[in-house]
Specification:
Distance between the termini: 23 Å
Largest sheet: 8 strands, mixed
Helix content: 40-55%
CATH topology of the largest domain: Butyryl-CoA Dehydrogenase, subunit A, domain 3
CATH superfamily of the largest domain: Butyryl-CoA Dehydrogenase, subunit A, domain 3
CATH class of the largest domain: Mainly Alpha
Number of helices: 9
Bound molecules: flavin-adenine dinucleotide
CATH architecture of the largest domain: Up-down Bundle
Shape: elongated
Strand content: 15-25%
Radius of gyration: 22 Å
Structural class: alpha+beta
Length: 374
């Protein structure tokens, strides 16, 4: 549990603990195909669903610490990854003006439209996806290679390079002439993605999300929020995996006590392994909450968010792998929670910035911009 919570955050923690218990029970009694609406209903009743949505749109616009507490708590019961817990958040569409607000943002927040995020491009692309102005339209060409949920999306918020101006985010409807869904594919973690090409796609210039030339900054603010979400969920799952290891060591000790009277929980080697897990989880969890506090104080914490995401995913990956080793073969059986965590965390070490790219950026933040804390 994060330490020294004020009354507001203590209340958030109790709410999250109650919801976590409810979702664990729900998993046991509701069939997989019926889960999402049931999860959504439970989350709405708990007041968690609207935490990622701004107050102006009927949500509660929770801060970074409150969101970290909820995600960490749900992750600690291994239910934080379930779809339906959080309502759609505006992401890059935050603060857009008309006509984007009425045509896309409002229906999106109401769950009536779906979006994708087009950022990653194929390594062999001859040129970044680009756009040029033609009167009051933008003409877009290029390719995006890893748009999560893209095959079901009504529109893709796409990073393009505008000729002579620089990076911009543009909203492109999937139904526009010239947009082709080339391929849909699934990944190890169970998520689905799409490859799109754009061939002379014309959109009104009003589809620019924010100012042309400042698109990377806007994209980065969405990426930072997602990195914090990933970090908090992973930190919770570190605790879940460690709890499983401890239970397994106690069960084994009980068996040994029955067989030969030995009472120590865990061999010396198992104790070292468990201690290492706890030390690593402590460091990663401390980084998460420090970063959340910096964000809530309005500080520039781009580098710390990268550090928190990288620490959380790498730590969970190692803890999960070691936990499987300690628990044994049952942990690799399909359906075992550790097998599920292993799949998901493998994807998260790459998604929203591979660990090595984040490290390079943290170094660049320091050396080129004089930013970043330790
Ligand atoms: C589950 C999942 C969901 C995703 N969802 C989306 C999405 O919705 N939208 C989207 O646009 N993309 C998405 N992605 C793509 C993801 O952002 C990219 O896979 C990731 O950024 C790596 O890019 P890449 O695959 O092109 O690999 P590359 O950029 O080719 O990198 C491969 C490896 O090379 C090394 N490397 C590359 N550049 C550097 C550097 N500068 N410094 C040090 N090492 C480096 C790293 O080890 C890196 O892992 C998703 C990926 C996954 C796995």
């Amino acid at each position: 549990m994060p330490d020294f919570l004020d009354s507001e955050h203590a209340e958030v923690l109790s709410t999250a603990e109650r919801l976590a218990q409810e979702l664990v029970a729900l998993l046991a009694r509701v069939l997989p195909e019926d889960r999402e609406p049931a999860v959504r209903q439970a989350s709405k009743a708990a007041g968690v669903f609207g935490m990622t949505q701004p107050k102006a749109f009927g949500g509660s616009g929770a801060g970074s610490q409150a969101l970290a507490i909820v995600r960490d708590t749900l992750g600690s019961r291994n239910v934080g990854h379930l779809p339906g817990i959080f309502g759609p958040s505006p992401g890059v569409l935050a603060n857009v003006e008309e006509p984007l607000r009425s045509q896309f943002l409002l229906p999106y927040l109401a769950g009536e439209m779906r979006s994708g995020f087009g950022f990653t491009e194929p390594g062999d692309a001859p040129r970044h996806t680009w756009a040029r102005f033609d009167g009051d339209e933008l003409v877009i060409n290029g390719q995006k290679s890893y748009v999560t949920g893209g095959a079901d999306a009504d529109f893709i918020n796409t990073l393009v390079e505008v000729d002579g101006i620089g990076p911009a985010m543009v909203l492109i409807e999937a139904s526009r002439p010239g947009v082709t869904l080339e391929r849909r594919f699934g990944t190890l973690d169970g998520s689905h993605h799409a490859v799109f090409t754009f061939a002379d796609v014309r959109v009104p210039a009003t589809h620019l999300i924010g100012e042309a030339g400042r698109g990377l900054r806007r994209a980065l603010s969405q990426i930072s929020a997602t990195r914090m979400a990933i970090a908090a969920d992973c930190i919770g799952q570190c605790r879940f995996a460690i709890d499983l290891v401890e239970q397994s060591l106690v069960e084994r000790a009980n068996l040994r006590a029955d067989a030969d009277g030995l009472t120590q929980v865990g061999t010396d080697l198992e104790r070292v392994a468990l201690g290492d897990m706890r030390i690593a989880a402590y460091a990663a969890r401390s980084a998460l909450y420090r970063t959340a506090r910096l964000l809530d104080a309005g500080e520039n914490a781009v580098n710390e968010v990268m550090a928190a995401k990288s620490l959380a995913t790498e730590t969970l990956s190692r803890i999960c792998d070691d936990a499987i080793q300690l628990v044994g073969g049952t942990a690799l059986v399909e359906g075992h929670p550790l097998a599920g965590i292993l799949r998901r965390v493998r994807a998260l070490r790459l998604a929203e910035g591979p660990t090595e790219v984040l490290a390079t950026n943290v170094a660049r933040g320091r050396l080129d911009l004089g930013l970043g804390r330790i």
